[in-house]
Design goal:
The protein is an alpha+beta fold. It contains five helices and 16 strands. A hairpin with a 2-residue loop joins strand 6 and strand 7.
Amino acid sequence: MVKLVPTLLTVSVLLASASYGAELTVLSQNLNRLFNDIDDGNREKVVSSKAYRQRLSTIADKIQRQFEYPQIIALQEVESREVLADISKAVVKNKGPVYQPVLLEGNDKSGIDVGFLIKGDVKIKQQRQLFKNTLFKRAFLFSRPPLLLEVCYKPGCITLVNLHLRSMRGLGSVNRSKRVAFKRLQQATSLARWIHQFQLDQPNSSIMLLGDFNAITPNDKYTDIVGVIRGDPDNSQVKYAAKDWINQDLIDITQQVSKPERYSYVYKSQKQILDYILTNQRFKPQLQAIEFSDIDRKFSDHAGLWARFIW
């Protein structure tokens, strides 16, 4: 395949400063299994009302003090749209803005989903799940189907895809390793093929993929999940090679975070990056700042990934 890869010029344009236009801030945050205090009869985890209120208060405080009310918040590991609505109410109680909750129920048996909180001045054009009914060995390929949201804010529109991919749990198992690795690879491949087609169908559209990819950089030695989704898999030191499906590669703007601070999770004392923001080369807003928050385990076991753009 003839590749159209991001050049140094592309990256410099993406990062160029601008003294005009609308400011857009985006946050991606895994909330570490946020369940409410209501038993829905779905065998989900039910917490006490006190514990739930405390978590809501902590989340609202973080959105205000640490993240300064982003226009777009992509969340992973939340139970329901009702929980997102409760977060919005907690933000308003803190004298913050109204956020519109967006969540479509997925396939996860434990009851967690991906969702968005969208600030009131951002217009939602469409929302839908990708690959919800796609199967892998007689089971669902995605427990948490990618959630697509097209939004418009002042000068233009962006297509967002919120991801929470299959974890690496089981990769080291003698009996489960191959199935886990192949499922992760199939998830990444499905996304890559979709991205390629999206860019063919909408060549001038801005697209952003963000969330908990459950994939490390450098790769996990089984397959290069982030590379497949980005469009340039590194097969040099992996057990299962991947095909390159994307003609116009995406840009991992997470790589702009300084190396010592470039991590969102700590596993067995090892700092890892599991959370990412990828954009296409046609992405119109210009990146001004990007950073990972500190990991506050009273809030979540993941750092938040925050970025500011100028249109």
